[in-house]
């Protein structure tokens, strides 16, 4: 890749972010925010698809494919955990948890 100003800016910003996220409390906060984001996405997607009452099976299949793709990305590669993989896994866990909570709400 060429050494342009934009490329150097992106490299510096990424390096600063990784240095910032090296702190354990900040890393934990990013993972918790990822979990809450996944929970919010599950509630939003299930509410929108339930209200629309159109393509329910297709949306469910797409959510299943998304969850399995995250599993493949996080667990198929035998490497050390990184901030990206931990946050992506937390989003997936929050997403699945949100879908279970929505199912329990609908079942009661």
Total of DSSP H or I helical runs spanning 4+ residues = 4
| Number of structural domains | 1
Q: Estimate percent helicity.
A: over 70%
Order of helices and strands: HHHH
Give the CA-based shape. Answer: elongated
Organism: Phormidium yuhuli AB48
Protein name: DUF565 domain-containing protein
Transmembrane segments: 30-48, 54-75
Keywords: Membrane, Transmembrane, Transmembrane helix
Q: Brief description of this entry?
A:
83% of the residues lie in helices and 0% in strands. It is an all-alpha fold and 108 residues long.
Describe the model:
This is DUF565 domain-containing protein. Keywords: Membrane, Transmembrane, Transmembrane helix. Belongs to the ycf20 family. By secondary structure, this protein is an all-alpha fold. It has one domain (24-107). It is built from four helices and no strands. It has helices spanning 5-20, 24-52, 56-75, 83-107. It is elongated and about 55 Å long. The protein starts with a helix and ends with a helix. The model has no long low-confidence stretch (mean pLDDT 87).
